[in-house]
Structures are given as C-alpha cells and as structure tokens.
Amino acid sequence: MASAAPAVEDANNGTMGPEGKYRSTRLAKLNSLSRLASKPQLLKDGFCRSHPCSTLAQKDTDRGLGVTAATNEPGYEAVAKLKNDEEMKTFMLRVIEDYDCHVEDEGGLMGIVPWFSGTAAVQSLAQLVRALLFAVLANGERWLSYKNSAGMTGADVPLDLQGYMQVAIIRKDIEMETFSRRLANQMGIKVTDEGGFKGMIRYHSGAAAFQSFGKLRDEIQAAVASPHGWAKLKSL
To answer: 102 forms bridges with which residues in the sheet?
Structure first.
C-alpha cells in the first residue's frame, strides 16, 4: 500500500492534507479563468472556429513534445514550433486537464488546434486559455465543460465578480440561485416572489445564458424598485 502524502501547511486553514492541496490547486486554476472573464477586452476579440486542417510531417525526434513540454508559455512556444496538430492537441489536452475541464466534443477541440499549432497560426498560452474560457462559457452545445472537481458551490464563493464567474462556469441554476440569495441578503434585500426570482436566475447561471455580476446586482435592485417586482428591502 502506498504511503499517504505528507500534509502541507495552509496559511489560512492550518495543516492541509493531499485532498486539500488538490482542491487549492483546482481553485487557483478556476480563479485564473474567472479573472480572464472579467477583462473588458474579452468580448472584443474572437477566434475562427473553421480551418483548412493539415498535419505536417515531423522528424521522429520531435514526437512526444506535446506530452513532455511544460504547460507554460515556453512550453507552448516549443510545441508550436513543430507545426504539428497532433502534438499541439496533446499539449492542449494537458492544459485543459490543468484547468479541470473536460472535452465533450473532440471536433470542437480540433476546430481550434491549427490556430495554435502553427499549421494555421501561432498565438500564445494566454490566448489559448482565453479560447478555452470562451468554449466553457459558450451558449448552447459546448465542446468543453468545467468538471468542478473541487466541489465549488454558490454557498462558498466570494460575493464579487470572481465569485460570480466561478458559479457561472458551473452552469447550474441551484448554485447561481444560492449565490444570488446571498448577494441579495448582503444588499439588505429579500426575495418575495420565488417565480420571478428563479426566472431571472436562468439568465445568469449559464443554463440559458450568461450576463455579468454588475447586471445581476442591477436586476436585484430593479426588482425592489418595481411595483410588481420579486423582491423588497428587508427594512420594509
């Protein structure tokens, strides 16, 4: 039987075992995704999803770099120099795993591989991660999903933009509902009409669409201001 991995010290929670360390790593990855999503320029840029795919032959000595290259910027650049779709696909799958995501449709993955592999274009690791975020947040059919191995919920994320994005990536009504109730409570507001409240939630949870943290706050405040709204101030 393998011996248990040693516990490590966590600055906030004291001693943290292997499971806690794994959770902490996953949270760090998700946090970086949510920070990317909060950048204003995110919606200004895009990337083509179609391409004249072609795999170029490589020397045998180049094979396997997609497996061995570090999942950082120099590692990406090394794999991109090969101009090999298969090597870049392997590298990208490792990045996807790093961010605790799962490929639902390999065709979607192969749709962007050439635009990072060098057979159509070379970009950067940061642009690759942003492309993955676009895929996770896409409406309708998605080729990439977030696994949420750390078990994040709407009950334990911070009540800010980053927390909103963490819950939105999970794409479950119940988690966004929990987050929104916490936010409304922080704002001194209580829900008085469950039907109206839950109707609004679907447009923030990812089940129907995504909005923004600012939009969520505005809608909660608007519900109080409306004579037929689904919420009111606790003091009333």
So the answer is: 145
Same domain (yes/no): 186, 140: no
Q: How far apart are CA 23 and CA 20, in angstroms?
A: 5
Q: Where in the sequence is the domain holding 107, given as residue range(s)?
A: 42-146
Answer yes or no: do 142 and 183 share one domain.
no
DSSP E strand stretches across the chain: 8-10, 14-16, 101-103, 144-146, 189-191, 231-233
Residue 182: Cβ within 10 Å count: 17
pLDDT tens sequence across 20-39: 555 666 666 666 666 655 55
Cα 122 to Cα 172: distance, rounded to the nearest angstrom: 35
Residues 172 and 215 in one domain: yes
pLDDT at 77 over 80: yes
